[in-house]
Amino acid sequence: MDQTVSSQKLRFRSFRAISALTIRELATSSSKTSGGYLWTIIEPIASIALMSVIFSLILRSPPLGVNFQIFYATGFLTFNVYRDVSGRVQNTVSGSRSMLQYPSITYIDAAIAKMLAATITQTIVFVVVVIGICLWWETRTVFIAAHAIYAMFTAIILGLGIGLVNCLIMAYLPMWRHVWAVLNRPLVLISGVMYLHDRVPQPYQDWLWWNPLVHVVGEMRRAFYPQYIGEYVTMAYPLGVGLVLIALGLALLNRYYSDMLIRL
Fold first, then answer.
1. Dihedral (CA of 235, 120, 131, 188) sign
2. How many whole angstroms separate alpha carbon 64 and alpha carbon 218?
């Protein structure tokens, strides 16, 4: 009986800690720019508008469907979910060091809070941008929620796994933060955001298949284009990669967490 009560208290305390940290993360991330939360919506809209103009100058029609804006949005916004989650989670220890000094708050609480903050933000952005595009233009798309939810969930899991592993590496190799930023820049170009993976010539198509984000973006495209088969999409692969990285990251953080707090 005592153990049950104690377990319930721990769960409640963890829930309160995660809730408070999530609110703090949302508040602090919004205050970094003068526009706050408004800028998080304006930025992807500006990117989609710019790329749509470039697309329209190069091609007569998008690689899929009839509307450049929704085609690019389905890829870019999905990629942005992964990028925001991984970017926030990799700062779990360094960005929350003062909060982690309290015994009631653990690095797991902080990581979950950052993941939730990124998920909430990117979900709002996704809904606002997609609805705005569909109201403003004739997209001729059919939304299938199951595919979209699966793609978003997998992007979150993948971002969480990479963020946790990077969190540890950056504590011991601070230079990795800059190296990873450089490596991450061309990722949007090789993740199928601006093209269809199955139209890439061989052997590059087979090489790019190993990029987990290619499958996630392909799944999101199937959420808006029912006619798009996307035979290359194997969602078990990015989901498996994400779960393995999460397990590895948690195991390493559990082992070296105390040392990391001293180093940072």
1. negative
2. 12
Full-model pTM: 0.88
Count Cβ atoms within 10 A of the Cβ of residue 131 and give its class: 0-12 exposed, 13-18 middle, 19 or more buried. Answer: exposed
pLDDT in tens, 131-189: 988 898 888 899 999 999 999 999 999 999 999 999 989 888 889 889 998 988 889 88
Which residue has better confidence, 82 or 8?
82
Amino acid at 218: G
For 191-236, the pLDDT digits (tens) are 999 889 999 999 999 999 999 999 999 999 999 999 999 899 999 9
Closest by CA to 117, choosing from 32, 221, 217, 9, is 32
Q: Record the tokens describing residue 18, joined without a space.
A: 């995660």
Distances (CA, A) of 198 to 25, 66, 147, 208: 39, 18, 18, 10
Its sign, for the CA torsion 233, 159, 154, 149, is negative
Among 140, 155, 123, 151, residue whose Cα is nearest residue 230 = 151
The answer to whether 165 touches 245, Cβ cutoff 8 Å, is: yes
Q: Where are the domains of the chain?
A: 2-263
